Amino acid sequence: MNLRLFHKFFFAFLAVGIAVVIVAGYLIERELRTDLSARIDDEIAAEARIIALMPAREIARNAEELARRAGARLTLIHTTGEVIADSERDISQMDNHLTRPEIQEARLRGVGKAVRYSTTLKKDMIYLTVALREGSKMTGYIRLSRPVTEIDLATLGMATTVIAIVLAIVGFSLTIALLISLKILSPIRRLTAFAGQVRTGNISGTLRIDTRDEIGQLAGCINDMVTALQEKIQTADVEKRKLESVFSSMREGVLVLDDENRIESVNRGMKAMTGRQSADVIGKTLLEAFRNSKLHDALERYREKEETLCEEIVFGHHPPVIMDVTFSNFYGETDGEQKTMLVFHDVTRLKKLERIRTDFIANVTHEIRTPLTAIIGFVETLRQGALDDRGKIQEFLQIIHSNAQRLNRLVDDLLILTGIESGETRFHPEQLPLDDTLHQVLTVIAERISEKKLKLQQQIPQDLPSIRADRDQLMQILLNILDNAVKFTPEGGTIIISASTGPEQDLILQITDTGVGIPKSEIPRLGERFYRADKMRSRELGGTGLGLSIVKHLMKVHSGRMVIESAPGRGTTVSLHFPLFQEST
Amino acid sequence: MEEKRHIRIQYDKELRDLKDKLIYAGALTEKAIEQGMSALLNRDTELATQVIANDTLIDRLDTEIEDKCIRLLALRQPAARDLRFITTAIKINGHLERIGDMAVNIAEKAIILNQEPLLKPYIDLPRMAEVAQGMIKESLDAFINEDVALAHKVRRDDQIIDNLNEQIFRELLTFMMENPHTIHRSLIISQISKLLERVSDHAEGIADMVIYMVTGQSVRHKPASAENG
């Protein structure tokens, strides 16, 4: 408990009280002393005058008795200054008193007074002298003297009273100070406690001080202030939360660098993108956190120009992630503190799509040009005279024909693909028994199977349920898959066609070959247009590079899916999952 | 007093800049090895030439960092931790520069191999490259975060590399014995394997220096198994 205020009140009252007592005491004492000494003077003078009425001889004889009665020392002195009698001293040892000031005064005016230290009695004494007369003739002096201590004793009594009063004042001021400080301090102490609580952040509740004085007003003010503060903080909180939720729900990564280029904060998107916890990156430089030289270079470039900069930066390599990183100014809470905000936008997918598109155009032109070049080349040769050689003509025409057919196939495939992609190709689902279509397809490619001396094994159960499919599209799917199997299986290999019902109300048709197989890393890309796992061989075999792409799209239209498993050198299994036909649908 | 504080701030900034520069060099060499191996595995000659061209930047950084270190040593007369940091920086810088050179060597060999048919699908070499790259990455992470435990892990990983190196050599030996036409390619692949082994040694060197920098104890030339289990 802090009692400083109490101390202040107490000492203030004490000081004022004591000062008053001392000043008053001093004045009263002085007054009293003068008054008292005047009265003693008068008293002694009266006594001396009475004694002076007696004849000198009588006085000398009864000196001691007179002195006792007067309560003073009595000395009888001759006009010459010689001491005739003294009530307390042996006169033979006393010197001439004529030079004493009281005697001199009495000689001139009849009465003399002096206060002086007596060498004979070793005390401060009051001496009062009256001239002794017989008729008009002065015969000597009567001197009465009393010690000054009598006055001192009188004033001492008064000093005791003064001390008592001082003590009373001390007690009084102690009580008053205690009362006042209790009265004022307790609300002030509550004010202090409340302010402390507000400072630590607990801005709730109000201060209850019901007095109407200044302290009550102060309490009211503080209450108003706290309410206003509460409102302000609430508004700021709401704003902050809004911003935070925007930041954290953004899919883009946001990163803020402080003015020393250290990472100050990252949002959730950033954490999700980089797989880093904020503890891993906060306080680090960009280089420390990401160790990407390009990112650092971009920051340096941004620093040079200080204007918003957008850069495409590749992160990682397994697999690479391409990010559009935007650098911009970010002003911090305090002035002059210039921060940088980096917004990371993952464009890997966009870039991939872009690449597929440009690849597609490049591929289409390439695929069209190859047969066209052959056709044009051989037509040119024929025009330049080969027409005469009938054997050559046959051969050339054959080449031209096959290339034209290839071109035709390509255009057909492209048309099918665009048809499916744009949704122009209508999907007419019907209840189809799988084996019917399969038989039709097999008759189409039977010739090629026997040409390559491939063994075909069919493991199709008799009671296979029907599927929901479009007849023409189903044929296209089976043809493409079987065509691939035949194409990529070397002579003497085996193709196994099996079917079974799957667990998810679907029918699984599996076409397994003992062909060249596909490396695992290539499998995800197989559905891409013009993507060939083995570029040379595929083109040699007359593929357009669109077969699997068409199958993939058609399977999607059928609400089914295609799964490819393969091992290089051992063969490939394509599993087609078709939905079963259900009456309700 | 104010002036003294100012000098200290300036000095700290210089140390931070040095660290950033070193990490920058680390990022470049890390990338160089990754691209060199990628050029080899994906038979990408263009990427290989790029790796060779980029090495000048690493070399320039090497001298720049060394100058910075010497300047700091001469002007600031660092003591204790700062001194260890700067000497470590000098040594790590050297390791990084060497790793950069090896990336160039790998890229050069990739260009030669790309002109010839593929000997066989690479299986152990990518694995080895992965481990070596992981070691570089982790040694740099250890340096940045002053992570002694990670540095010790890098030291232990060196054993995996040594095993893979031997395995690759044995496999290549059988190839060469079977078919003398493969000797040229096999020798080059063996050299690449050796280069990766040396890259991992440099990564281990960086890890050693990190341990020294943080703890003040030298673990160089001591077996990894003896440390910190």
Give the biggest sheet of chain A. Answer: 5 strands, antiparallel
Q: What is the number of E strands of chain A? A: 17
| Largest inter-chain contact set | A-B, 11 and 15 residues
Give the terminus-to-terminus CA distance of chain A. 86 Å
Structural class of chain B: mainly alpha
How would you characterize the largest beta sheet of chain B?
none
Structural class of chain A: alpha+beta
Count of extended strands of chain B: 0
From the N-terminal CA to the C-terminal CA of chain B, the straight-line distance is 47 Å
Uncertain runs of chain A with pLDDT below 50, 5 residues or more? none
Q: Quick one: overall form of chain B? A: elongated
Strand content of chain A: 15-25%
Q: Any idea what the shape of chain A is?
A: rod-shaped
Number of distinct helices of chain A: 16
Mean pLDDT of chain A: 82
Explain what the structure shows.
The complex is a heterodimer of chains A (585) and B (229). Chain A has 585 residues and is an alpha+beta fold. Chain A contains 16 helices and 17 strands. In chain A, the strands form four sheets. A five-stranded antiparallel sheet of chain A has the order 2-1-5-4-3. Chain A has a five-stranded antiparallel sheet with strand order 7-6-10-9-8, sandwiched between helices. In chain A, helix 12 packs parallel to helix 16 (547-557) and helix 14 runs antiparallel to helix 16. In chain B, helix 1 packs antiparallel against helix 4 (124-145), helix 4 runs antiparallel to helix 5 (148-178) and helix 4 runs parallel beside helix 6. Chain B is elongated. The N and C termini of chain B lie far apart (47 Å). The model of chain B has no long low-confidence stretch (mean pLDDT 87). The A-B interface holds A 284-285, 287-288, 291-293, 296, 317, 519, 568 and B 16, 19-20, 23-24, 26-28, 30-31, 34, 38, 121, 140, 144.
